[in-house]
Amino acid sequence: MSLVKMYKLFLHWLVKLVGLSPRKFQVFAFAGDYSVYLPDLVFFGDSVSDRTESSPAFQAECMAKALRKLGVDKCTVVGLSYGGIVSFKMAELYPELVEYLVVSGSVTAVTQSFGDAGLERLGVSNWGELLLPDFGRGS
Fold first, then answer.
1. Quick one: signal sequence residues (predicted)?
2. Which is nearest to 136 in space by CA: 48, 62, 58, 56?
């Protein structure tokens, strides 16, 4: 078992130990002036797919398709942590859709040399293994 998998198991146990659990809620603060959508990224929360891909490009594609199905032509995308990485990719791939971008607690990109060395030291093959939950993917 890799160090990352052991760490994830420990964090999962710790979160349960302190009494944290998932909660769903309604957002009303902006509802009078804006249409607000709070989607789960695929493999987060209750969102699943029969595809195993979980790259930022895949996540951005899913978000763009969902927004278009909802009739959204232009939007402000807000991303936190890994969602910020997906937000940057979404703005890159769909500039006609993303009018404004708000990102917090995230990096824009990881260089290939840093990425490969970091992944090797952590015992994972890609950043998704490190940053994404593995619940629901059978990993």
1. 1-19
2. 48
Q: Nearest CA to 85 among 33, 130, 120?
A: 130
Average pLDDT of the segment spanning 119-123? 74
**Residue reference for tokens 């703005």:** 91
Asked whether 69 and 62 are in contact (CB, 8 A), the reply is no
* Three-class SS state of 63: helix
Q: Which two three-digit tokens encode residue 123?
A: 């015992």
**Mind listing the domains of the chain with CATH numbers?**
39-139 (3.40.50.1820)
DSSP β-bridge partners for residue 79? 103
115 in Cβ contact with 92 (< 8 Å): no
Specify burial of residue 120 (Cβ count, 10 A radius: 0-12, 13-18, 19+): exposed
Q: What is this structure's pTM?
A: 0.61
d(CA 45, CA 105): 20
What would the pLDDT profile of 23-32 be if each residue is shown by its tens digit? 666 667 777 7
